Amino acid sequence: MKKGKKITILGAGNVGATIAYTMTMDARASEIVLIDINKDKAKGEAMDIYQGTSFARSVNISAGDYEDARDSDIVIVTVGAARKPGQSRIDLAQGNVNIIRSVMPQVAAVAPKAVYVVVSNPVDILTYATIKFTGLPESQVIGSGTTLDSSRLRARIADHVGLPPQNVHANVFGEHGDSAMIPWSLTTIAGMPMETYCASICEKHNNCGKIELSEIEDDVRNSGANVIKLKGATYYAIGMTVRHICESILRDSGALMTVSGMVRGQYGIDDVCLSLPFAIGSNGIRSCLEPPLTDDEREKLLHSAKVLKDTISSLDI
């Protein structure tokens, strides 16, 4: 009989291994299984982490095969090629779609009740592909989406106004990619609408405007590519992001996050996975909020959905 919570991580590269380490230190799961086509790599990563568990809470971490995903509560998907310097997320699309087509039905067959957290890029496309190839309920498949982008945005705004990120509430909607949009009308700083804070309290308000907002947007949109350019890959921030998503699943918290999920009618968008405020619990997506947007923001979100749908239509899914 299974005791505690079980997490399976597909892919033992930089992202998968970092997530495994982060989840081990978090200690919310009692069992973690690493699966990779390179079995030695998965075994080595599992051994490396396990050998330090005497300094943490008890977690059984091991390497395995697809069959070992059985009875998982969460399956984290990091399989596929990683983005290289100068490469867009969409450039990875068909190759990684083919990997999802090959791998995910095998895993879903032994773990049909798990919540699937897709991290591989392009994450919106692969979240959609996972649903289509496995036949899993749409609510059980979640992409990491713009959860990390939203964290980057909060950190960037916080730095701009000189406050801790916890005092900023801001999100990125749409694609985890170039067409992502920021609903500035929903952004709050220190509990106030951003417009109120910037006009009444911020010492920089006389010097801020559309140029500054555009610079913040560019920084958020390009931050992942900049990290890849500097160090070759991104994995720490996404590791913390996935831990945050998994915490909501394991605690059944119902927390709102801008994960990527199947959209069915919100803002007139249908049959595409992108990021909106989804409530996350033990069975995956509970609901999706549809906060009011300005006409301009709505247009940008619809454009982002179109970009993704056009990409899907060009692929073999």
Structure, described:
The chain contains 9 helices and 14 strands. Helix 1 packs across helix 8 (about 235-250). Strand 8 (about 190) and strand 9 form a beta hairpin. It has helices at about 15-25, 40-50, 95-110, 125-135, 145-160, 195-200, 210-230, 235-250, 295-315, and strands at about 5-10, 30-35, 60-65, 75, 115-120, 140-145, 170, 190, 190-195, 255, 260-265, 270-275, 280, 285-290. Helix content is about 45%, strand content about 15%. The strands form 4 sheets. A 6-stranded parallel sheet has the order 3-2-1-4-5-6, with helices on both faces. The chain is an alpha/beta fold.
What is the compact description of this entry?
By secondary structure, the protein is α/β, with parallel strands linked by helices. The protein is built from nine helices and 14 strands.
Number of helices: 9
- Average of per-residue pLDDT values: 93
Distance between the termini: 37 Å
Strand coverage percent:
15-25%
Blueprint of the fold:
Elements: E1 6-10, H1 14-26, E2 31-35, H2 39-50, E3 60-63, E4 74-77, H3 93-110, E5 115-118, H4 123-134, E6 141-143, H5 147-161, E7 168-169, E8 188-189, E9 192-193, H6 194-200, H7 210-231, H8 236-251, E10 255-257, E11 260-264, E12 270-275, E13 278-281, E14 284-288, H9 295-314
Parallel strand pairs: 1-2, 1-4, 2-3, 4-5, 5-6
Antiparallel strand pairs: 7-8, 8-9, 10-13, 11-12, 13-14
Helix pairs in contact: 1-2, 1-8, 3-4, 5-7
